[in-house]
Amino acid sequence: NTTNDIYKHTLSIMKFVIVLCLFGLALGAPRPQEEEAVVLPDEDIVEAILEEVVKTAVEAAAPPLVAAPVEAEVPPTIDAAPVQAVIKTKAEGEPVVVLLQETSPVIGAVFTHELQLDNGIAETRSGSEGPAGTSVMKGSYTIPLGNGEVATFNWVADENGYRVESPHLPIAPPAPAHVADLLRIAAEQRAAGITFDGQGSRVQA
């Protein structure tokens, strides 16, 4: 395999390099008065040392073998199905069918309009003449809620503004006690002819 090839190749190179180094040291050593024969180390000893060095280097360079993690099997949990109210609604993408749509001709401020859809939404609207040439409109609309209930809103639009009545509208909290005192003071000032400008400063008579 690849590891064995690397091992053999490295062993050959290092063996050659070490032999050259030892030979160079032997040549460079000071010579005695009488020439002595250069004694090189035994080839078997050099080879044994090289094998040990290369083996250590290869083992250090090789990636450690890590056992694959064993995942414990966890039994699947069974979640209880949530209890939901059964509400009849239109499927997504299903067209809404108009059950009733009638609008009378508009004569001045007088008209009637009625609309009913098969998803529970309904609307009625009518107009009439109001005082001093004004018009009065009133009507109602019904919307099915997600909890199975139906919300109905009745409204009127006349010279007093737009007003809506429904038990599904939020109720404002009661006004603090000092508000009643401020309203009483304002009424007394108006009765006394005291007025204020847009900046809140009193207008001198």
UniProtKB/TrEMBL annotation:
Could you say which residues form the signal peptide? Answer: 1-28
For this UniProt entry, the molecular function terms from Gene Ontology, in alphabetical order, are: structural constituent of cuticle
Superkingdom of origin: Eukaryota
| Keywords linked to the UniProt accession | Cuticle, Signal
Query: Could you confirm whether the keyword Signal appears in this record?
Result: yes
Q: Which InterPro entries match?
A: Insect_cuticle
Entry protein name: Cuticle protein
Gene source species: Meganyctiphanes norvegica
Species classification: Eukaryota, Metazoa, Ecdysozoa, Arthropoda, Crustacea
